[in-house]
Write a structure and sequence with these properties.
Layout (H helix, E strand, L loop, with lengths): L9 H14 L12 H8 L3 H13 L3 E3 L5 E3 L10 H4 L4 H25 L2 H15 L10 H14 L3 H9 L1 H13 L4 H19 L3 H18 L12
Antiparallel strand pairs: 1-2
Helix pairs in contact: 1-3, 2-3, 5-7, 5-10, 5-11, 6-7, 6-10, 7-9, 10-11
């Protein structure tokens, strides 16, 4: 099956190349970008598409204008992430740190969920699992929302309002992190593996086996770190 050739605007092509050059540190954090005139010569285009691309980068929080003139590359911090364009520029170590924090918090949440869950909680977890199962063969969707709802349901079942509030405060960040990570693991086999890990967590919560629920959640999030290349994780931790 052929994919139609995409005819992108010149400014979009410039934007893509500038983003890549920021990402690969051709233009590192805190460095000054070439002037519009220099960039137009570099890319062989007029200054209009250069100006448009720079406007998008500025609106996305990747660059900023400073006193004295010129645009500078901003240092992207994961904790301040809002825009999906900016998220592409995050250092992978920050993604690993987020998953590490989630592993600590959510493994304990799963333990509490096993001890405190009620039938409504179990229904919510099952519903999220079934929603994710439907994405296994559906390549038109990434499945991050169903994945998020599963973790939300587990934390909710822990019945701790402070834990729930902390999870909700990071909800948008976690959604973007899930979208980012699942896009890198869209193969059917990997989706099936995530689905089975969800099922094992649910079964432990259903059986009210707190230790197994905690361990299953920790393994699930550790596997996510391994798939994304976190070398700080010992291979034995996912067994």
């Amino acid at each position: 099956m052929f994919t139609p050739i995409e005819r992108k605007k010149v400014s979009s092509q410039v934007l893509d190349q500038l983003k890549e050059m920021i990402k690969d540190k051709t233009f590192p954090p805190e460095s000054k970008l070439p002037s519009e005139h220099e960039l137009s010569k570099m890319f062989g285009v007029s200054r209009a598409p250069i100006r448009e691309a720079l406007s998008v980068l500025a609106a996305s929080g990747l660059i900023e204008s400073r006193q004295g003139g010129g645009s500078y590359v901003k240092r992207v911090e994961l904790a301040g992430m809002l825009d999906p364009v900016t998220f592409e520029m995050v250092e992978m170590d920050q993604i690993y740190d987020l998953l590490e924090m989630r592993s600590i918090v959510e493994s304990e949440a799963a333990k509490l969920a096993a001890e405190r869950r009620n039938e409504e909680d179990l229904d919510l977890i099952r519903e999220a699992i079934n929603s994710f199962k439907q994405t296994i063969d559906n390549y038109s969707t990434v499945g991050h929302e169903a994945d998020f709802q599963f973790h939300y349901a587990v934390v909710k079942a822990a019945s701790n309002p402070f834990l729930m509030q902390a999870f909700e405060n990071l909800a948008e960040l976690n959604r973007k992190a899930l979208l980012f990570s699942l896009k890198k693991n869209v193969q059917k086999e990997k989706r099936e593996k995530v689905y089975k890990e969800h099922v094992r967590i649910y079964e432990a919560i259903l059986d009210q086996d707190a230790e197994r629920a905690s361990k299953s959640m920790r393994i699930h999030l550790t596997n996510a770190r391994i798939k994304l290349g976190d070398e700080r994780v010992a291979i034995g931790e996912n067994e």
